[in-house]
Write a structure and sequence with these properties.
alpha/beta, Rossmann fold, Dihydrodipicolinate Reductase, domain 2, 2 domains, seven-stranded mixed β-sheet, six-stranded parallel β-sheet, 9 helices, 15 strands, 24% strand, binds nicotinamide-adenine-dinucleotide, binds 1,2,3,4,5,6-hexahydroxy-cyclohexane, NAD(P)-bd_dom_sf
Length: 337
């Protein structure tokens, strides 16, 4: 097969990064079409990746020069765009979250299950990060004994004013929901959220930071500090506590240390692209190879849906202050499986 011809829907921060990677670093792929609600942005990115602009994302999905699609539009646009790709039976890499509520996410799971093979891969890039992959290997090897707890820190230095408590759960904590399922190999069953004194950086009514406590099927606990406006750096750490030992990732070992004027200064990652650059490229590389065979090689719709379900419970927990059970629908059996 020739190079995979990809349409990128949404070329803001994430989509333009993926488009640039596909055009320059990922073998056997090229970007043929870009689309964005902001036409000027679409044209600017199209020029840098040598693609054409399509104003309507659904026309891009249906275009003759498109074999596969990367969806990097905002979460509320994902459901319709993914479903249109499924209607056309073409592979998709959909950025997280799969959708922004549990019912729409389940619809996508059900629709995909009617097809012969999975076509939707979720952009949970941490699964492709060498540190997370090593931590999972450590868990599955049994070297540290049975896992008991996960402590997670997820801090962004800043977020826009529209990034409210609900988005902190649906857009940020969704990563920890997936990481917990990936590392522990079981579903999350309930969520509780504590809202301490907010930072003065937080817009009125926004609870920033928050502590999220997740319970798993076998009774393990996962705690997450989500802090969207820490003013420090991009800090993502995960510590596993197991019966015979502990292991921590995200310790800034790639930090650049400056020595000047009698002082030593380490520069921390400023954002997700700096921290997860290699993971995004590995994710895309694996997706391209799989998409050329008409399938996926990474987290799928069930993973996307399960994480959305955890977030749905989390949003309710923020609102009510209660412990909220995660309500997962039945996992459909693929018709052709
Ligand atoms: N995996 C990660 O670490 C990661 C990091 C950042 C963002 N994301 C995800 O990627 C997606 C995009 O986030 P972003 O930070 O790039 O946002 P962004 O606002 O920078 O970019 C989104 C772009 O989509 C465009 N757009 C709006 N509606 C559209 C539509 N219906 N169809 C096509 N384009 C549309 C906007 O004009 C904008 O250019 C989100 O789902 C977000 O959660 C994932
Ligand atoms: O969309 C981004 C992205 O998913 C990042 O990985 C996460 O750290 C941010 O909190 C979120 O806003």
């Amino acid at each position: 097969m020739n190079a995979l011809r990809v349409a990128v829907l949404g070329v803001g921060v994430m989509g333009s990064y993926h488009a640039e990677a596909l055009a320059s670093r990922i073998a056997h792929a090229r970007v043929t079409v870009v689309t964005d609600a902001d036409q000027t942005r679409a044209e600017r990115v199209a020029k840098t990746v040598d693609a054409r602009v399509e104003a309507d994302p659904f026309a891009a999905i249906g275009a003759d020069d498109v074999d596969a699609v990367v969806i990097a539009s905002p979460g509320p646009a994902h459901e319709e765009q993914v479903l249109a790709c499924l209607d056309r039976r073409i592979p998709v890499l959909c950025e997280k979250p799969l959708t922004t509520d549990i019912n729409t996410a389940y619809r996508v799971v059900q629709r995909e299950a009617e097809l012969e093979s999975p076509l939707v891969q979720l952009g949970f890039m941490r699964r492709f990060d060498p540190e997370y992959a090593a931590l999972r290997e450590l868990v599955t090897s049994g070297e540290l004994g049975a896992p008991l707890l996960l402590h997670c820190v997820h801090r962004n230095p800043a977020q826009s004013t529209v990034f409210d408590s609900e988005m902190m759960i649906r857009d940020s904590v969704v990563h920890e929901a997936d990481v917990a399922r990936f590392l522990l190999g079981e579903e999350i069953t309930a969520v509780t959220v504590k809202r301490p004194q907010p930072t003065r950086e937080a817009p009125a009514g926004v609870s920033d930071p928050m502590l999220v406590l997740m319970e798993t099927e076998s009774g393990r606990l996962v705690d997450v500090e989500i802090f969207a406006r820490s003013r420090v750096a991009y800090e993502v750490r995960t510590e596993l506590v197991a019966e015979h030992g502990t292991a921590m990732i995200g310790l800034d070992q790639h930090m650049v240390v400056h020595r000047t004027g009698g002082a030593r200064t380490g520069l921390l990652a400023r954002g997700f692209i700096e921290r997860f650059a290699a993971a995004y490229d590995t994710e895309l590389h694996r997706w391209v190879q799989a998409a050329r065979q008409g399938t996926i090689d990474g987290p799928g719709t069930w993973d996307g849906y399960a994480a959305v379900a955890v977030c749905e419970a989390g949003v309710e927990a923020v609102r009510t202050g209660e412990r909220v059970p995660v309500r997962l629908g039945a996992r459909p059996v693929r018709a052709a499986a």
